[in-house]
Design brief:
The chain has helices spanning about 1-40, 45-115, 120-135. With about 140 residues, it is mainly alpha-helical. The protein has one domain.
Length: about 140
């Protein structure tokens, strides 16, 4: 049984090798030869082949430029999005600073009035109530 499997494997390898050799010969004869004759010609077909080759190179260069431009656009878009996020964070910070700053200014002013000791007892109580309200304002 092993001998049969070995013989089949050898036969298969030889068949594949023969097929590869035949394919190479046929490819060179029917494809490689005509292409070589086109490249070496000095007539219109030779010029046409050179122009096609030249255009192929130009198209490859144009494709590279388009890819570079697309990459630059994506980078610029990402930077724009980042700047927009920073602007939004800045606006939120400014709003938060305003919302906290206003009550703190009121608290500071009223506390100074109370600390001065020049207020009547009912004015002191009123200022203390205002301070308490301003302290609760950010929690609303």
């Amino acid at each position: 049984m092993r001998g049969v499997v070995r013989d089949k494997a050898i036969t298969t390898r030889l068949a594949l090798l023969a097929a590869a050799i035949v394919a190479t010969i046929v490819g060179r004869a029917f494809i490689g030869g005509p292409i070589r004759s086109l490249v070496g010609r000095n007539d219109e077909l030779g010029e046409l082949a050179e122009e096609v080759d030249s255009m192929s190179g130009q198209l490859a260069g144009a494709r590279e430029q388009l890819n570079a431009a697309a990459e630059a656009r994506l980078t610029a878009l990402e930077q724009l999005r980042h700047a927009d996020r920073l602007t939004t964070v800045g606006r939120l910070a400014a709003g938060l600073a305003h919302e906290l700053g206003t009550p703190l200014n009121v608290v500071a002013g009223r506390a100074k009035m109370i600390a001065s000791g020049k207020l009547a007892p009912d004015a002191t109580a009123e200022n203390a109530t205002i301070i308490g309200g301003q302290a609760e304002r950010p929690n609303e």
